């Protein structure tokens, strides 16, 4: 779905009109992918628009930037979070997706990036359910990708960086061209890693399993939220290496992510997962998760940031 323009975009401390938010074609980021970013959701709750887990998202953004020696020194984490809130507010959004980006801008071209300025912007837009509205209830059909996730000590998997998503695009395109909604990538050792833009959970014998950080996965904010909720429900959550064949014999599988939220997986490589629909554990986790997002449940963890005060 094409982006629906909003009024203003935050760029390096100033708000500019949507059509004026441009960068030079010789910016370092255009040629070498030198950008780190986040995806954050604002929900229209019973208590008004609230941003979900803004603090850990922006801290992860700054950690990603630190790995690439491109921390935005001109603005603190707290001020950056305030800028996110103000961008939602100035665009009069009730529910939206928030995309903050830190990137290397225009000065010189060459692989060495340190002489290029560090710039940042924040854009918001309306975005529905990433894998389709029906996916949250019915689940999605996925395949195991022929493309592996990035190998250790090549590109930092813990960084949410633009360059890593070239790998994600290969996984996603292959899946969609072959009739699947999404792909699951293995790491370079053949263990399950994650989707093109989602973390993965598996339910087996009443236990919740997810791939560990060392399996080339992004440390997802929704992933962490699900682990917290599982513990609240008395469900044992275990981080462990997961062999591919466990995908086919799991009782339940689901993706997590800011965009996809908690999306059940109903089949892998045309093999049904469990009953071929969302299972009871997935449904219970969804139920509690969305109660937090809508503020029907008390914000016991301080996950929600109010937009309009």
Task: Characterize the structure shown.
- The protein is an alpha+beta fold.
- It folds into two domains: 8-125, D-amino Acid Aminotransferase, Chain A, domain 1 (2-Layer Sandwich); 135-294, D-amino Acid Aminotransferase, subunit A, domain 2 (D-amino Acid Aminotransferase, Chain A, domain 2, Alpha-Beta Barrel).
- It has helices at residues 28-32, 54-67, 77-90, 135-138, 164-177, 221-232, 246-249, 280-294; strands at residues 8-11, 14-17, 35-37, 40-45, 48-52, 96-104, 118-125, 140-144, 182-186, 192-195, 199-204, 207-210, 237-239, 252-257, 261-268, 271-272, 304-306.
- Strands 8, 9, 10, 11, 12, 13, 14, 15 and 16 form a nine-stranded mixed beta sheet that branches. Strands 1, 2, 3, 4, 5, 6, 7 and 17 form an eight-stranded antiparallel beta sheet that branches.
- The longest helix has 15 residues, at 280-294.
- The model has no long low-confidence stretch (mean pLDDT 95).
- Kindly report the average pLDDT value: 95
Q: What string, H for helix and E for strand, traces the elements in order?
A: EEHEEEHHEEHEHEEEEHEHEEEHE
CATH class of the largest domain: Alpha Beta
Distance N to C terminus: 32 Å
What composes the largest sheet?
9 strands, mixed
Instruction: Name the beta content range.
Output: 25-35%
| Residue windows where pLDDT falls under 50 for at least 5 positions | none
Instruction: Say how many strands there are.
Output: 17
The CATH architecture assignment of the largest domain turns out to be Alpha-Beta Barrel
Number of H- or I-type helical stretches: 8
Helix content: 25-40%
And the CATH topology of the largest domain?
D-amino Acid Aminotransferase, Chain A, domain 2
């Amino acid at each position: 779905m094409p982006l629906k323009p909003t009024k203003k975009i935050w760029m390096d401390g100033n708000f500019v009109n949507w059509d004026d938010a441009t960068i030079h074609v010789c910016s370092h980021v255009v040629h070498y992918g030198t950008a780190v970013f986040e995806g954050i959701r604002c929900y229209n709750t019973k208590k008004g628009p609230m941003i979900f887990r803004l603090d850990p998202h922006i801290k992860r953004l700054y950690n990603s930037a630190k790995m690439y020696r491109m921390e935005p020194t001109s603005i603190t984490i707290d001020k950056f979070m305030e800028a996110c809130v103000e961008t939602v507010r100035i665009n009069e959004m009730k529910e939206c997706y928030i995309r903050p980006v830190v990137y290397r801008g225009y000065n010189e071209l060459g692989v060495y990036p340190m002489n290029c300025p560090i710039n940042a912007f924040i854009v918001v837009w309306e975005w529905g359910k990433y894998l389709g509205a029906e996916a949250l209830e019915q689940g999605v059909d996925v395949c195991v990708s022929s493309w592996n996730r990035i190998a250790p000590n090549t590109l930092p998997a813990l960084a949410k960086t633009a360059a890593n998503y070239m790998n994600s695009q290969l996984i996603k395109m292959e899946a969609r061209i072959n009739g699947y909604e999404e792909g699951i990538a293995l790491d370079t050792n053949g263990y399950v890693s994650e989707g093109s833009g989602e973390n993965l959970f598996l339910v087996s014998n009443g236990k919740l399993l997810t791939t560990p950080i060392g399996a080339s996965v992004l440390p997802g904010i929704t992933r962490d939220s699900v682990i917290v909720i599982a513990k609240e429900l008395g469900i044992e959550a275990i981080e462990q290496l997961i062999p591919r064949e466990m995908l086919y014999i799991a009782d339940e599988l689901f993706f997590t992510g800011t965009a996809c939220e908690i999306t059940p997986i109903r089949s892998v490589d045309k093999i049904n997962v469990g009953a071929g629909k969302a299972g009871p554990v997935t449904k219970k986790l969804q139920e509690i998760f969305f109660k937090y997002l809508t503020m029907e449940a008390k914000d016991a963890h301080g996950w929600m940031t109010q937009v309009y005060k």
